[in-house]
Amino acid sequence: MSTFFKEELAELGVQLPANYLSARGAVDPEDGVKAVRELMSQPIPPTAIMVRTDLLAIGALAEIRRMGLSAPEDVSIIGP
Questions:
Q1: Mean pLDDT, range 35-43, rounded to an integer
Q2: CATH number of the structural domain 19-78
Q3: Which H or E run contains 63?
Q4: How far, in Å, CA of 71 to CA of 60, rounded?
Q5: Helix (H) or strand (E) run with residue 76 in it
Q6: What is the average pLDDT across 36-61?
Q7: CB 7 within 8 A of CB 30
Q8: Quick check: helix, strand or coil at residue 28?
Q9: What angle, rounded to 10 degrees, do the helices at 54-66 and 29-40 form?
Q10: How many CB atoms lie within 10 A of CB 75?
Q11: Which residues of 17-35 are buried (b: 16+ CB within 10 A; e: fewer)?
């Protein structure tokens, strides 16, 4: 996670749990799939997932659909 993003969250009083950070160094759609599986298995799954690249977004969206969910109704994908 970028320092800027962390600082902005801190200024807003938002604490992002470490278990919501996933797929560092990810580069391809399969990494997006893995990240969604990990994130959505949390006790309280996220309602939005931020991705760094279009390739990660492709994988994330595919996995969300495989889970029977839809974007943006169930989970929003935020990216470049």
A1: 92
A2: 3.40.50.2300
A3: helix 54-66
A4: 10
A5: strand 76-78
A6: 92
A7: no
A8: coil
A9: 50
A10: 21
A11: eeeeebbeebeebebbbbb
pTM of the predicted structure, to 2 decimals:
0.78
* pLDDT higher than 80, residue 16: no
The predicted pLDDT at position 2 comes to 59
Residue 48: phi and psi, rounded to 5, are -145, 145
Burial of 37 (0-12, 13-18, 19+ CB in 10 A): middle
Residue located via tokens 């959505």: 40
Residue with tokens 């889970």: 67
3-class state of residue 37 by DSSP: helix
In the block, tokens 């580069």 appear at 27
Domain boundaries, the chain: 19-78
Structure tokens at 7: 């600082």
